[in-house]
Amino acid sequence: MNNKTAIILGGGISGLLVSKVLSKKYEKVIIIEKDKLEDKPQVRQGQSHAGQFHVLLLRGLNTLEHYFKGITGELKEGGAVELDLGNGAYWYSYGGVKQNKITGINTLLSSRKIIDYTLRKRVEKIPNVQILDKTKYIDLIEENGTIKGVKVKGENTEEYEIKSDLVIDATGRGSLTPKWLENHNYPKVEEERTLVNITYKTAIYSRLEGGLQDGKMLMYSPTSPEKIGVVIQPIENNQNLVCVAGWHKADPPTDEDLLEFLKQLPDERFYKVLSACKKESDFVTYKVPYCLRRYFEKLSDFPKGFLPIGDVFCNLNPAHGQGITSACLQVEILEELIKKHDPANMSEIYFKRIVKVLDECWNASAYENFRYEETIGIKPKAVNLVNKYMVAIHKAANKDASVYAELVKVSVMIKPAMNLFSPPFMWKVFAANMRK
Ligand SMILES: Cc1cc2nc3c(=O)[nH]c(=O)nc-3n(C[C@H](O)[C@H](O)[C@H](O)COP(=O)(O)OP(=O)(O)OC[C@H]3O[C@@H](n4cnc5c(N)ncnc54)[C@H](O)[C@@H]3O)c2cc1C
């Protein structure tokens, strides 16, 4: 432990996780969060996306548990529903339902606000971490190429300065850093955008006695050119989070129109389940026009004493549920590097290592994005061939539970995507598709 101070900008998932890692090295860690943080689960302005469907992939959950031992149990106490993804998901895609099988690949389902609140409560117990809420970060203080602190403004205060030895930017998609760099004569951060134009609409429904759901999560994935998908996700308090997503500007139906839409699906279960539920909230809309990647690693110059993390690097397609897990993996890299390097002087090696995580998540998401010919952006390698094979995997998983189990392991990121391309697995896919 040194006698230094680290400042973390943003009290989202990334900021909270990083605070745990830095608290072992820095005498004082200060999280600056612009929103008011209440003593209850909340969806707040700076994280309005937290009101939408979120699934915490097993890889991310394992990291949370690694840093905050027992948090899985606390999430369950908070109402999170444990579910074996191999057996607990009723997933319709490519003309059929995935063959279920108990896999032991358990994950937790809950509203996103429960995850954030449970994590924040754990961070609040770390003695050398202070969370300054209702405090907006305004500017960085730079001296001779090193960040020496930040300028902030509290709800009822004038602007003031906080000095520090390290600043981490965890302010998410809207980060001021790219503009700040440009305004201070650093090179421009190269960006890549992939236009997907997804609209999410989400509401809470109660599960009623006698419904058909059996505790399962139901997912209907649209097959291009279809553009509307639905998730009915069991969450805390015997409720469902119902999310309807429209790709490429398709307007997701809600209320009676949603029931009409479900009635026309090739599988009647979606209609039967939702019509046995009671709507408890209005639908809330969130739009994701594009996925965004920022290539900090290509910069020839970057200030010392400063590092970005989480969604500042990359906004993945939410439809693939990787964002939190990507943040978790980035924090693991940061932890590993600060054991050997001075955190205030390691941006080059940090960016180099982070790229591997970002590439893994971004590429997996990119193939999916280009299932639609309307998607605009840089296509990944051999996209048509890979996507044809992915369709074959999905169809095989509708017939063979072991194919589905492998697909689940890759989807929750506990196995590498390359596993889907091993010759024995490819043979299994081929054989399943040959069966009637
Ligand atoms: C619709 C939608 C659905 C998603 N679904 C999933 C999913 O199923 N699974 C999954 O893993 N991921 C999902 N994601 C992605 C996931 O939500 C993000 O990757 C994750 O929230 C990133 O966390 P973060 O802490 O990096 O950024 P954020 O969550 O954006 O947090 C940034 C924080 O910084 C604060 N802040 C911003 N500016 C300032 C400032 N100037 N001063 C002080 N504080 C500031 C904000 O208030 C906020 O608290 C989804 C995203 C969206 C949009």
Structure in words:
With 436 residues, the protein is an alpha/beta fold. The chain has three domains: 5-49 and 116-190 and 295-368, FAD/NAD(P)-binding domain, CATH 3.50.50.60; 73-112 and 195-290, 2-Layer Sandwich (D-Amino Acid Oxidase, Chain A, domain 2); 377-434, no CATH class. The chain is 34% helix and 26% strand. The chain contains 13 helices and 19 strands. It has helices at residues 13-23, 58-67, 71-77, 85-88, 112-124, 177-183, 255-263, 269-275, 323-340, 347-369, 383-397, 401-411, 423-434; strands at 5-9, 28-32, 81-84, 89-93, 96-97, 106-109, 129-132, 135-143, 146-154, 159-163, 166-169, 190-207, 217-220, 228-235, 239-246, 277-279, 284-295, 306-308, 314-315. Strands 4, 5, 12, 13, 14, 15, 16, 17 and 19 form a nine-stranded mixed beta sheet that branches. The chain has a five-stranded parallel beta sheet with strand order 7-2-1-11-18, covered by helices on one side. A three-stranded antiparallel beta sheet has the order 8-9-10, with no helix packed on it. Strand 13 (217-220) and strand 14 form a beta hairpin. The longest helix has 23 residues, at 347-369. The protein binds flavin-adenine dinucleotide.
